[in-house]
Amino acid sequence: MAARRLRHHAEVDILDDVRTYWEADAAGYDAVPSHHPADPGVRAAWAAALARHLPPPPARVLDCGAGTGFLTLIAARLGHRVVSLDLSESMLARLRAKAAVEDLAVEVVVGAADQPPAGPFDAVIERHLLWTLPDPVHALRAWRSVTPHGRLLSVEGIWGSADPAEKVRGWARTRTARLLGRHHDHHAPYPAHVLAQAPLANRTTPASVVLAIEEAGWRGPLMERLSDVEWAIRLTLPALLRALGVPPVFLVVASA
Ligand SMILES: C[S@@+](CC[C@H](N)C(=O)[O-])C[C@H]1O[C@@H](n2cnc3c(N)ncnc32)[C@H](O)[C@@H]1O
């Protein structure tokens, strides 16, 4: 009992630190093209990926860790009714403002990913959230419980030390970007004590994501590398960075 109480305290503390980090990141988040793409080709490549795998619109879609609305806005433009869940009110405030500019009806919910709003949803979508979670399988199970007849779309990338070759390329990209005067994607490094408790941090690969999805009870996972998205992003980069490529982007789709 005492051990469980201690674990609960640790998770609550981490959640506070995670929220604090993203609250601080919200102001600069959309200045990074991969967070808020302005390029029409990149936007269209992302839209094609979601359109291929979401149910026909209008479906009820839950975007977990929605941030400033990267996936939410694409899905809403495709005609879906999206509920956007995030811990950070500041991230969601930006999402809401962007949705209003385009007159897109989006519902926002401030809360933890493992406590999704009541379903049923036809699809759950997430991008770049799983690596931040202390218990991704627990969250994936909770999403399945509110999507009893629907599907999951999980978009992740390979960064950090997940793959030795990517680690070298990532190092080269960061150095080159600095030389070209480009800034880091976030306001500060992610807190080390939070990373230490996130099992997928620096270990996000297609295999680790598929395993977590299956462990949570989702069925028939299909994995696709989003080469069109990568290609469209590469075309927006200066020649030197283009030659170094972009981190691999992949999508896993599974059924409840
Ligand atoms: C890397 S950002 C991704 C945002 C967005 N999905 C995108 O693709 O740009 C991670 C987001 O997840 C949110 N987040 C992190 N941990 C969370 C949790 N336990 N519950 C809900 N949201 C969380 C953060 O506030 C942040 O907005």
What would you say about this model in short?
The chain has 256 residues and is of the alpha/beta class.
Structural features, described:
It is a single chain. This protein has 256 residues and is α/β, with parallel strands linked by helices. It has one domain (2-255): Rossmann fold, CATH 3.40.50. Helix content is 46%, strand content 16%. The protein is built from ten helices and seven strands. It has helices spanning 2-29, 40-53, 70-77, 89-101, 136-145, 164-179, 192-195, 206-215, 227-235, 239-244; strands at residues 60-64, 81-86, 106-110, 123-127, 151-157, 219-225, 249-255. The chain has a seven-stranded mixed β-sheet with strand order 3-2-1-4-5-7-6, sandwiched between helices. Strand 4, helix 5 and strand 5 (151-157) form a beta-alpha-beta unit. It is globular, with a radius of gyration of 18 Å. Mean pLDDT is 90; it is low at 1-9. The structure holds S-adenosylmethionine (SAM). S-adenosylmethionine binds at residues 18, 22, 35, 65-67, 70-71, 86-88, 91, 112-113, 127-129, 132-133.
